[in-house]
Amino acid sequence: MAKKAYVYNGNSWEDLASSISDLSSYATTVDLDDYQLKSVAGLTLITTATFSAVSNFSVNSCFSATYDNYFITVTVPTCASTDVNFRLRATATDAATNYYWAQIRGTQSGTVSGAGANPGTSTQFSHSGAGDNICGDITLFNPFVTGKTSGQMRAFGGDGANYLQRMTGFTHSTSASYDGFSILFAGNTTGVIRVYGMAI
Amino acid sequence: MTTTKKDVLTALIIDALTGKETIRKLTADELTQRTKDQAEAVAQQAEATAKADARTSALAKLSALGLTPQEIEAL
Fold first, then answer.
1. A56 with B30: Cβ contact below 8 A
2. B43 to chain A: closest CA residue
3. What is the DSSP letter of A31?
4. Virtual CA dihedral for A51, A53, A56, A60, nearest 10 degrees?
5. What is the pTM of this model?
6. B-chain residues within 8 Å CB-CB of A46?
7. What is the DSSP string of A64-114?
8. So what's the ipTM on this one?
9. DSSP tag of B27
10. Which of B72, B3, B71, B75 is nearest to B34 (CA)?
11. What does the angle CA A99 – CA A101 – CA A106 come to, to the nearest 5 degrees?
12. For the segment B37-60, what is each residue's pLDDT rounded down to a tens digit?
């Protein structure tokens, strides 16, 4: 059975089809775009950066009040040798102190060891041999919120005849708000980095 | 990757809001920090290698004393 449609005139409901010929006085003046119709949870891509022959790679203005937590992917097909390090960044300047980190290191031969800093000038993210590849991800918790920033990192890379897995946790103990980050390679390097915000 | 005098180490800075990219040479401070980072990495790797070698040596000595792999693992 068909239902009748009604509109509210401010005092009472009126039959839409027979009583109201002009709906303009009932229309809202607010654009629909101002409203989020449905909450969308998941990863939102903030920026993709492809770089070539770069030693220090930095992204500014990628963290904001929009998201609490962030997910960063790092893909480097050709890396310079030795360690790859990570720093937080605020107003286009790296934070170069107070990184407390602990790392589990594994190799394809089954050797497991550890490393850390108490504190260091950066957090160690990965390790590579000259011309080898690395891939990994970084999860950051509350970098934009003024306070300590923590993170978890996973990275896998080649080092000549060896393959290395590194899993790192870190806290940056300086109470500050950060809007970006840097990844420091030992030499000029080529790769792709993507930054996602985590919507909840 | 070994760098030589001909290699120019560069920094790429991207602004996620504007998309603006800035490429420049590393500053003297950044080069100093890079050298320090590399020295730390080499020292940490050497420490990890020494620990692994010591463990291998200790396992061999325990085995020479007659302990089985299961007994060594149970320690």
1. yes
2. A115
3. -
4. -20
5. 0.77
6. 16
7. -TT-SEEEEEEEEEE--SEEEEEEEEETTEE--S-EEEEEEEEETTS-EEE
8. 0.74
9. P
10. B3
11. 145
12. 888 878 877 887 888 889 889 999
